[in-house]
What we know:
0% strand
Amino acid sequence: MTITLSDESATHTARKSGDGRAWTADRIVVHALLIFFVLLAIGPILLVVMNSFKTTPAIFGGPFDLPTTRTFGIDGYLRVFTRGNFLLNYQNSLIVTVVTIVLTIVTATLAAYGLVEYKVRLAPVLAGLFIVGIMLPIRLGTVPILEIMISWNLIDTLTALILVYTAMSIPIAVTLMVAYFRTVPTELKEAARIDGAGEFRTFLIALPVVKPGLAAVATLTMLPVWNDLWFPLVLAPSKSNQTVTLGVQQFVGQFLSDYPALLAALTLGAVPLILLYVIFSRQFIKGLSQGVGK
């Protein structure tokens, strides 16, 4: 009888996962679906990276084949750096993205703090306007935006891109940060005010509590800004102000496309986004999930 109990205990333990929960049929199906969708998302990225190290005939002859000694080549990467202005494009994208993230975080946190702290009649209306801003695509206002930038003499400058991207990112950033500032303990802010802290000092004291939200806002802001093609094409098309996404287009011709260089440029352009998610994935998932649930 003792042996039977021991065998059953061992079998029961073997059926449990690393976190101690049993592997039920539902859990196996969920994990299988998650693995499938992960492969579905990562597959195209790996395909682009793999083919960027191959020659053009090898790309068309076997797009799913691994590079071999006969098909391997780095000519695409060499042409990326020797033809065109890829390093300058990379610099422009970094400047636009970093400045946009900083401006979005600063303005969105201040606006969200004000909407939560100051109980004025217009606060619900203003919060509603930010929600409407999420639903309305900013590209619908391309013509008025272009007219404004021309009147301000900002056409074909990085400043125009920064202003547009900041305005585009603020609605969702404010909406997310409002949810976070509502969770800051009132006792913490009251204690700060009793100790003589002003409103801005109180805001700085409450800021560490909403740190996960800041990480989520930074990540949500970077992705559409870095990958956007529309506004760089409309507002900053010159070679000196081209971003990475617009610079990639120089490898696509009407009659002949340099596919190794194109794939190499796409691979290099995706590196910052991949690094961002690898480094801040935990904070991003935590901040976004908590912000949605609040």
